Structure formats: structure tokens, C-alpha cells
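Re: that chain you flagged

S.,

Sorry for the slow reply, it's been a week of failed gels. I finally had a moment to sit down with the sequence you sent. For the record, here it is as I used it:
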Amino acid sequence: MFSILEENNYKFSMEKNTSRSSKNNDLSEVIKEISANLSLGLKKNNAKVKVEQVVEAILYRLKTGFHWRQLPVKQFFEVDYSWNSVYQHFARWSRENIWDNVKEIIFEKHKKSLDLSSIQLDGSQTLAKRGGEAVGYQFRRKGTTSNMLFLCDNNGIPLSCSDVMAGNHNDVYDVENQLGKMLEDIKKSNIRTDYLFLNADAGFDTDNLRDCCKRNYLFANIDFNRRNGSISDREEILDKELYKRRFVIERMNAWIDGFKALLIRYETKEKHWKSLHLIAFCCILIRKH
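Prediction finished late last night. Pasting the C-alpha cells below so you have them in one place:
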């Protein structure tokens, strides 16, 4: 007979093991879905490893924030394989837009898991410690940063991101062009974007963005910026109940921040920095579907 204390400890141990098993199953599913759309190439050195092992090593870098040189490659490969080989695969897949294709396929497969009753637009600044492409000094952050725009669904699942932009620009810099690119990216997964409600904060209250939303058949639910004049004189309408859904942006940010490699930018190439985000988007969708 178990004592009450022993029984509680047993239940806790079982719950802990079940939780760990669930996480392992989630990771296996993520690795399987991403790997299905990748190939290692024809080099002789690639014949001794599996694409799943390379993907797991890349995900380890993304999740833990370890630098490429710090990858514990012996943990993923049974043969002698270097961190640089893993990095070169990641770099080639970035250069050839393979990560874009992977994201497109996975989002089309799981599009029924998305809630498009409204979408949210927001921007994010990230410190760039090593400099590189598309960086600029940001006085508010007192450092060199990069900026990106994000679209997420009504539950906070990230849908797309903009090109990487220098941090000395604000969120509305080139916003019409970047929003158009993000919408096109979403459409590649056979997801319709017309007649969606788009929430954005007062920092996005510009005539150019509102006109861009009209051209793309979006209903712009953008908070009013008092710097643009008296709110009572505005012709636009703000649905305050719908606008409350913007809180899911914070949920999206929390999920993205769970990938430690995205907290501070160490990638010098903008393509590599964006690719890490696309992989994170796929991981989030697969695990939340």
C-alpha cells in the first residue's frame, strides 16, 4: 500500500514523465515536418548523416541561443560531423529560399488551425551585437538594432514577417511595401487575406497605411494617434471591442522570445536572421495546431 506521501510523489513523477514525453513527441513532429521538405545535397560528407539530425541541431541553436561554434554536435550525430557543416546547410537553405518554401508548405498544411477573424500588425526592435546587414543605431535602445514587422492571427500565431530593416527607421518606414510582401507571403500558402480585420496601434496611424489596407481589401482597425489632430474630426472608425484582441501580440512575442537565438541578433546576414524567424513560426504552428 502506498502512503499518501508516496502516492503523491508517484503521481508527480508520472505527470513529469508524461510532460517530458509530450514535449519529446512535439519536437519529433516538428523535426519530421520540417525535414520532409529539405535535402542535404550530393556531397560525399552528407551521406553519413540524416537531414533530421541536421534539423535537430539547427533547432537546438534556435531554441537555446547557443552560437553555431558552441553546438554540441556529438549530441546529434553518431559520426564525426562539424558545427560548420550544420551552419553551411542552414546558410545554403537560406540563400536558396528553402526556408521560405518550408514555411509555405507547413502553413498550407495547417491553415485550418489559424483564426483569421482578425489579424494583428506590430513591429519589433532587436539589438544587433555583431553589426552586419540592415542594422542602424537606435537612440531609444542606445545601440545598433534591426527592425521587423510581424503579422499574427487572432490567437497570436505568427503568420509572416517583413524584410529585416535597419533599426534607425521607425515601424511605418516602408510599411506599405512590407505589408504587401507579407500578405503575398501568406497567400502562397493558399490562405486568403482579403476582407480581414487588421488591428494596429496608434504608431501605425498614417494615411499611407490606411490606403494600403484599402488596396489590399483589409479593414483597418487602427488606433488614433492624437498627433494627427482631433479624434472627433476623424472620418475613420475604431472598433474598440475588436481592438482589444491586440493583446495576442504579447502572446506572440512571448512565444518568439522562447527561442533564445531571437532575443539578440548575432547573425550578420539579414537573410539568416529572417530564416531563423521563419523556422520559429513553423515550430509554433506545428506545436499549437
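What I noticed first: Confidence is low (pLDDT under 50) at residues 1-16.

Talk soon,
D.
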